[in-house]
């Protein structure tokens, strides 16, 4: 798949916008919006929509609104409003003072509904929801409601009484009078208002009738002077209805444009499913670092820059597909490679005693903070007689292709010395290796060989006496299959949940520069990946999330091209 970086051509939305610019349709204005329903936390798909809408506003020197499409009081909560605001801001979306609510337009929407009634274009219908659905019919056509030809006076009276709270939930609706035989089912007299005696998180108890999404959405765009109303493909066959309401009310007419929603391999991007994962406790809350929510990836250690880079790279399409989640990981790797401080940390410590290093002595060794960024400088890392290395970096009798530590082998300790393994100490009962014995060559200080002597392996280490304790959480994909919906007949996507998506590694040992590291700060642990301090950290124990491993697919892919 080509990335937009290599193809500076306009995408199809930009082409439409520029065409409008040439024709003067919106007087040269560009005004977009991100319109979430506050019924869940935002996910990476929403990030795509935010970056797209905000990006277009920036590119064309226009405006960007954050609008809560809060038409369904039973599913919406303030907690979601707050999280959405935080997430959009974190991504860099700037709505300035335009935090708007569809519910602020309820009075206006109501007045327009009366206008449509007076124009003979809307009627109060007494059919139940099931009957309405049945009347909608099939491909051959639908059946008109027996209430379709009520007089304007009767409709107005009933609608006002609906508003006044005279009727119980579900007994009546207001419907647009369009065409019960339209090939587009959305045009078969869609419901505009329903009766719902429920308090709304924004309007309180003011209303007991609520507009349907389709009736509220386009008019809200119109009120705000939106020029380009960008949405996902499932709204394509709602566009005639979007246009119908606006034309029949006779108000500013934004252009709805659809693009393919983002899908990622090994994950699900649907609020309904994410809610399910949270409430059924398959994950530890909305911001579980395994979650594809914006709050989840933020806690995992993702940067807004990486998210934006990813969204830009995948571009936009007219057809649905799945993007490889590796693209997301690579965007993060690339960003952190440039700015994360390198440190040393040992996840599964193996004790190493340097026999010829004096007890009580400490060496301060110079370590580079970031080879990609000389301005990041260097730091001192303490070395002493007892150090920890990774259990994985040792084999008692090393295999031929194993170039790390083993009896008789000499390796380089990163930034420190060459050491040679002389033997091991074992637990007399279990036979497990409890300690590795080594000698060091003082002439190799800094990791350079004085006599051109070569070593094949370089390993990381931490001084035992100076080490900081930590717990590290390693993550794998949340689902075991690229397409979580790939399930046996009769099963659902949750059978593909990965039971090994979280591995908690206690007892890790980190270099002392990490003591007191702030929640959210990011590091590269040399040879292990990028890590971020988790909010579960306490003064006595740091907790780190591995954000992503070091393997760099993107660079590899670029090279292959
Ligand atoms: P979901 O389908 O996950 O439940 P939604 O579409 O119901 O999400 P909204 O709050 O209505 O969520 O979405 C706000 C905006 O984000 C809409 O314009 C919607 O089209 C867009 N959006 C939602 N999911 C995606 C996605 N996967 N990729 C791109 N844009 C998306
Ligand atoms: Mg939606």
Helix/strand layout:
Layout: H1 12-23, E1 31-34, H2 44-59, E2 63-68, H3 78-91, E3 99-101, H4 106-118, E4 122-125, H5 129-136, H6 152-164, E5 173-176, E6 191-195, E7 209-211, H7 213-223, E8 228-232, H8 239-249, E9 255-259, H9 271-279, H10 294-300, H11 304-314, H12 325-339, E10 341-343, E11 345-346, E12 349-354, E13 363-368, E14 378-383, E15 386-390, E16 394-395, E17 405-406, E18 410-413, E19 418-426, E20 433-441, E21 458-459, E22 461-463, E23 468-475, E24 502-510, E25 522-525, E26 529-533, E27 542-548, H13 553-560
Parallel strand pairs: 1-2, 2-3, 8-9, 10-25, 12-20, 16-17, 18-21, 23-27
Antiparallel strand pairs: 4-5, 5-6, 6-7, 11-24, 12-15, 13-14, 15-22, 18-19, 19-20, 23-24, 25-26, 26-27
Helix pairs in contact: 2-11, 7-8, 11-12
The structure holds adenosine-5'-triphosphate (ATP) and magnesium ion.
Adenosine-5'-triphosphate binds at residues 35-37, 45-46, 48-49, 231-232, 261-262, 269-272.
Could you characterize the architecture of this molecule?
The protein is of the alpha/beta class and 561 residues long. Helix content is 26%, strand content 23%. The chain has a seven-stranded mixed beta sheet, with helices on one face. Strands 21-18-19-20-12-15-22 form a seven-stranded mixed beta sheet, with no helix packed on it. Strands 4-5-6-7 form a four-stranded antiparallel beta sheet. Helix 2 crosses helix 11, helix 7 (213-223) crosses helix 8 and helix 11 packs across helix 12. The chain starts with 11 loop residues before the first helix and ends with a helix. Bound molecules: adenosine-5'-triphosphate and magnesium ion. Adenosine-5'-triphosphate is lined by residues 35-37, 45-46, 48-49, 231-232, 261-262, 269-272. Adenosine-5'-triphosphate binds next to helix 2, strand 8 and helix 9.
């Amino acid at each position: 798949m080509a990335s937009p970086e290599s193809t500076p051509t306009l995408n199809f939305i930009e082409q439409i916008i520029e065409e409008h610019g040439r024709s003067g349709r919106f007087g040269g204005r560009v005004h977009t919006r991100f319109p979430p329903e506050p019924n869940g936390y935002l996910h990476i798909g929403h990030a795509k929509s935010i970056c797209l809408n905000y990006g277009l506003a920036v590119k064309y020197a226009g405006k960007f609104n954050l609008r809560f499409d809060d038409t369904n009081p039973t599913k919406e909560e303030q907690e979601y409003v707050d999280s959405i605001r935080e997430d959009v801001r974190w991504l860099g979306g700037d709505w300035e003072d335009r935090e708007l609510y569809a519910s602020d337009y309820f009075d206006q929407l109501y007045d327009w509904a009366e206008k449509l009634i007076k124009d003979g274009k809307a009627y109060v219908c007494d059919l139940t929801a099931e009957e309405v659905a049945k009347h909608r019919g099939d491909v051959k056509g639908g059946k008109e409601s027996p209430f379709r030809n009520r007089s304007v006076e009767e409709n107005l009276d009933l609608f006002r009484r609906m508003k006044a709270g005279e009727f119980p939930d579900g007994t009546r609706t207001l419907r647009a009078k369009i065409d019960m035989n339209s090939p587009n089912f959305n045009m078969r007299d869609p419901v505009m208002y329903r009766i719902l005696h429920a308090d709304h998180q924004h309007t309180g108890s003011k209303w007991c009738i609520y507009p349907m999404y389709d009736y509220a959405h386009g008019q809200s765009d119109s009120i705000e002077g939106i020029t380009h109303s960008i949405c996902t493909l499932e709204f394509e066959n709602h566009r005639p209805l979007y246009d119908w309401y606006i034309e029949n009310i006779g108000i500013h007419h934004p252009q709805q444009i659809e693009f393919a929603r983002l899908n990622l391999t090994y994950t699900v991007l649907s609020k309904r499913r994410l809610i399910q994962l949270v409430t059924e406790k398959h994950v530890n809350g909305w911001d579980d670092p395994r979650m594809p929510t914006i709050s989840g990836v933020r806690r995992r250690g993702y940067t807004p820059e990486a998210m934006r880079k990813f969204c830009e790279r995948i571009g936009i399409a007219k057809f649905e597909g799945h993007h490889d989640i590796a693209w997301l990981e690579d965007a993060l790797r690339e960003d952190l490679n440039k700015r994360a401080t390198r440190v040393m940390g040992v996840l599964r410590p193996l004790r190493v005693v340097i026999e010829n290093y004096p007890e009580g002595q400490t060496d301060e060794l110079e370590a580079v903070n970031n080879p990609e960024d000389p301005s990041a400088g260097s730091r001192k890392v303490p070395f002493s007689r007892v150090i920890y290395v990774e259990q994985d970096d040792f084999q008692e009798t090393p295999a031929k292709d194993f170039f790390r530590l083993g009896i008789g082998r000499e390796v380089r300790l990163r930034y420190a010395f060459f050491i040679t393994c002389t033997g091991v100490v074992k637990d007399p009962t279990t036979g497990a290796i409890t300690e590795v014995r080594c000698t060091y060559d003082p002439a190799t200080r800094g990791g350079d060989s004085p006599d051109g002597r070569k070593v094949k392996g370089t390993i990381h280490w931490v001084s035992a006496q100076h080490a900081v304790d930590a717990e590290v959480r390693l993550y794998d994909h949340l689902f075991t299959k690229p397409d979580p919906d790939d399930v046996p007949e009769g099963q659902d996507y949750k059978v593909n949940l990965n039971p090994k998506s979280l591995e908690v590694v206690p007892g890790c040992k980190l270099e002392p520069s990490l003591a007191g590291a702030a929640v959210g700060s990011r590091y590269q642990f040399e040879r292990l990946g990028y890590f971020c301090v988790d909010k579960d950290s306490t003064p006595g124990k740091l907790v780190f999330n591995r954000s992503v491993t070091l393997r760099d697919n993107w660079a590899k892919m670029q090279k292959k091209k």
